[in-house]
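Why CoA transferase? Reviewers of the renewal asked for a concrete example.
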Amino acid sequence: MPQALEGLKVLDFTQLLQGPYATQMLGDLGADVIKIEKPGSGDIYRKLTFFNEWIGGDESLCFLPCNRNKRSLALDLKSPEAADVIQRLAREADIVVENFRPGVMDRLGYGYEALHKLNPRLIYCSATGWGPDGPYRDRPGQDLLVQGLAGVVMASGQRSHGPVAVGTALSDQLGALHIVYSVLAALYYREKTGHGQRIEVNLLQSVLAYCMQDFFTVHNGGRSFERPDSGIAHPGNGAPFGIYRTADGYLSIAMNPWPKVVEALGEPDLLRYDDQQVLFDQRDEVFHAIEAVTVTRTTAEWLDIMLALDLWVAPVNEQKDVADDPQVRHLHAFREIEHPKAGRLRVTDIPFRMSETPGDIRRPPPLIGEHSREILEECGLSPEQIDALYEKGTVTTEALTPSPSQP
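Here is what the prediction returned.
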């Protein structure tokens, strides 16, 4: 079947998580994503991994999840010869995404103005940590730093234990989503007008937008959020909203009519808290009263009881168990792919369905410069020109099994 973004060419100058995740999403929908990497070392994320563990010898647990459906061109952007290659690619490209610090692409000669002159239809997205200008322009921007500055960590965790960062790279992944939806909007505009444009996305505003309810309340309700000292899951909510220990694990209980919660718990004396203001003002006390009951049964037993009353509840899974959850299995949320070095890998699948143009995983994450030669051939370079670039080290290809014929 056709794919929604089939025929679009993306030049991907990104590394780490924010940019690569965004371009992977475009690739999942059919775009031809050409990942421009530094010869020898490639994307910085290739050298970082969780637990200091590697797959297939030296493949990163951090790099592999966000770089499928791409081809890699290992090209030294500082070499004089690179300019001709980038210009050839830019003339035919639809989208450029880069996440260098502000000003780097301009100094290299590949900023928006330079490439826009070559291709007025080009959509050029720059992704930064703090924005393209302002007092923090030159600071390093990273997920944890943004979570802290944006107030996210101060809204998480227990009051007595201090703020807690969200247990995933929230800022980067939200930034990636903002890249994708702004690029898709620019593509629609280009279809109507023929004009490309410049897009600037930053981690900070991506997180601030994500926290819209919280900031709206702070700025318009005149009250700041304070972390509870129990497992209440949001500083603006009262009981029972939270995570509760059971006999064999944990259970999430969301917003529910208090009398129905009391009925499920089988503790009628808890009706004394049946007032919304009391459930907020005394939420820590109520939390501990609920948990004193939930620890007496297993998570499965509570699910049977509470779901029969149509309460909003769910199990709390360890990450290693999520793939075996019946609904996760039903949705085919994970699938397996084959990587030339790392072997068989389980990855998260495309998270939505499209009836006419479904996405697909066509390529595993590439090796550094794995597709350099074929990309240069598509640019119109002759075999002799390509060989010359290899000889100078301007272009490289990582080989699984080097041979005398390998450039």
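The chain has two domains: 9-210+329-396, 242-316. This is the kind of structural detail the renewal will allow us to pursue systematically.
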